[in-house]
Amino acid sequence: MNTHIKKVSAQTSVDLSRRSFLVGAGTAGLVLGYAGVPGIVGDSAAFAASANFEPSVWYAIAPDGLVTVTCGKADMGQHIASTMAQIVAEELGANWKDMRVQLASNDPKFNDPVLGAQITGGSWSTMMNFDAMSRAGAAGRMALAEAAAGLMKVPVEEVTVRDSVIAHGKSKKAMTFAEVVKSGKVTKTFTPDQLKAITLKTPDQYTMIGVSVPQLDIPSKTNGTAKYGIDTFLPGMVYGKIVMPPVRFGATVKSVDDSAAKKVPGFIKAVTLDDKTGTTSGWVVAVASTYANARKAAEALKVTYDNGPNRMISSAALLEEAQRLQRMDETGLFFVKDGDTAAALGSAAKVMEAEYTTNINIHAPMEPMNATAEQKGDIWHIYSGNQFATRSGAIAAGAAGVDPKFVVLHQMWLGGGFGRRLDADMMVPAVQAAKAVGKPVKVIYSREDDMTMDFSRPLTYQKIKAGLDNDGKLVALNHDVVSAWPTKRWGIPDFLSPSVDKKGALDAFTVNGADFFYSVPNHNVRAILNEMAQNATPSGQLRSVAPGWTFWAVESMIDELAHAAGKDPAQFRIALLDGKGKNDGGAQRLRNTLLAAMGLAGYGTKQLPKGEGMGVACVSSQERATASWTACVAHVAVAPSGEVKVRKLTVATDVGTQVHPDNIRAQVEGAALWGLSLAMYEKATLKDGAIEQTNFDSYTPLRMSQLPEVAVSVIANGEKATGVGEPAVTVVAPALANAIFNAVGARVRSLPITADAVKGAMKA
Asked: Which of 172, 273, 492, 551 would you call most buried, defined as having the most Cβ atoms within 10 angstroms of its Cβ?
């Protein structure tokens, strides 16, 4: 089954596919974008004649020849702004030293060409924008070439464009981009059909794509001029510190005693949030002249709560509820329903069942959540780093009680995102506090605020039942996935998917990956919503999303089945990746990455010491329709105590077209280590409705001293560019579990993998 990514309906959204593309000319600069968009620049004719310095949808070329690319994606350290500029520069023919980047506001004209909204996630950015950015660059090159040819009085088909220069070899004439822009003679326009008809470069013609050019954001990030949300300072600005309730969600404020807070210097007001968007619950903001004073005032406030309906819920209760729901035949909706699994399991020679669990996980980006809000006239200005401007603008508007068109989001660089900044909770207290005191307010979460009020990765419970025939061939697999549904919480119907039996809408972002590329004739996947978890632990998307838990279960079970069939787990997978039917193309690419990882790791060719083992896993993260092909071989050493030492992770990934090789390797390495951290070290727990872990002493991600060797093989075959930020996260945990089994015969089925669990499984 394919997961279809649908266009998100947004306030004043514009479908880019219906716009005319215009390369306009003016004495000020060459502006490339889409014309005829209400609220941007008026009609095409007016836009073409405008001497507008402002960059439009994609990029602008100034009279000095500098090319400024506007990035509609959140840049959280993955250098996506530079990637977008590199794609433009390739087709435009610009010199890299002339390229600049800036981040887009929440203006609908910056909506994603495919999604129809401003969202950064799913490892979608490069794969979904490569074609549009390439065509924008190519159109600019063609317009510049035509204008320069006219000015030089030479045939346009005889000019070349490279390094920001249009040259005519026969006459030795040449003009720079700056000279052509200053001339005001660039007037060529492109219709959507003409844009689509442009012949783009083939990979053998690339001079920029595939080159590790200097990242454009590095200088400002190293000299301190890059501005993150936490760096925002406005005239007259004051500070807000949140007083959090004793439960994650559902509390209400009964009373606030601010008598002690009034003694704190600079204290202004205690604001009880009235959040009609439902993003927050039971929050109070102490507003003061400085952040230090705001913290002191917050500590001095005496807040009385009704802790609400979730006050007694624990992680154990969430798991028990998930198990109860899974046992009920009528719960859930089908994500995959192929063949007749009941009949196939009934006649199978061997049937296996297993349960797989993951715990709550916290994002914990190094820059805690923050936002600054200021009202100027009718317009609200919000300064923050955000991954989902379309939704966040609406939430900020809801907090202010205004139409979303009156909210301007000023996008900042993100000090880490990983899905956390898809949510806009930090904007709600900033807006309501600013409204209450009549001044700009900056709200900064403490680390404790950020952890206990995170929109975390949900606790998940999965049960798989599978059958083998007499030849050890996998003939049936039932897979139930029970969790909170983060995407449903967003309240965006177009981000939900119809069940295959058309009985309702499910959150595919909780089951993606379960629709794997193995050929299994009878295959069911059921998505089940855990309402208790949905209410008590409002969950979000954490780097890798569903494949972080679905492939944990699938790739562990495939390994268990291989051993039950008496077959090598890697060869068992290769046989299942036969590319039959709907799996054609994807299965072959996945098989190739598995073979590449095996070869690089020396899987099956080394005699390992006692207590050591290698394990494999291969995944098609993120969604089936936007897959990246990734495989891992994990090498571990397991002590009699159950302690696991990860010696090496070998990761192979098929990226299609690689834009920036060094950045791809960095992303894959970082993703693999994030996957290791989730697999071995990270766990949050719920007790009495609250997250117990409040800082890095109790929530313990991977430390530098725990890093293994990481080897990466990048397969660049010229196919469509894929995403690399998340897939390697999803492949590590099952590879580790499979390696542990091969080392000492201990099968662990719960994340994180602990020494106690391994030792217990060894004894069993």
From this structure: 551
Residue 511 has which token pair? 């089951």
Q: What's the predicted TM-score (pTM) here?
A: 0.93
Per CATH, which fold does 229-309+369-444 belong to? Aldehyde Oxidoreductase; domain 4 (3.30.365)
pLDDT at 321 over 70: yes
586-601 and 569-576 helices cross at what angle (nearest 10)? 160
CATH number of 316-360+456-763: 3.30.365.10
Range 157-179 average pLDDT: 97
Whether 631 contacts 596, CB under 8 Å = yes
Give residue-wise pLDDT tens across range 338-363. Answer: 999 999 999 999 999 999 999 999 99
Q: What are phi and psi of 563, to 5 degrees?
A: -65, -40
Asked if omega into 622 is within 30° of 0 (cis), the reply is yes
The letter for the amino acid at 58 is W
Q: 371: part of which helix (H) or strand (E)? A: strand 370-376
- Show me where the domains of the chain are located: 16-221, 229-309+369-444, 316-360+456-763
Proportion of the chain above pLDDT 90, given as a percent? 90
Answer yes or no: are the C-beta atoms of 461 and 483 closer than 8 Å.
yes
Q: Alpha-carbon distance 321 to 315, whole Å?
A: 10
Q: What tokens were used for 422?
A: 């898809």
**Residues 101, 3 contacting (CB under 8 angstroms):** no
Strands (E), 263-342: 267-272, 284-288, 302-306, 333-338
- Kindly calculate the radius of gyration of the chain based on its CA atoms and give it in whole angstroms: 27
- Tell me the residue type at 685: T
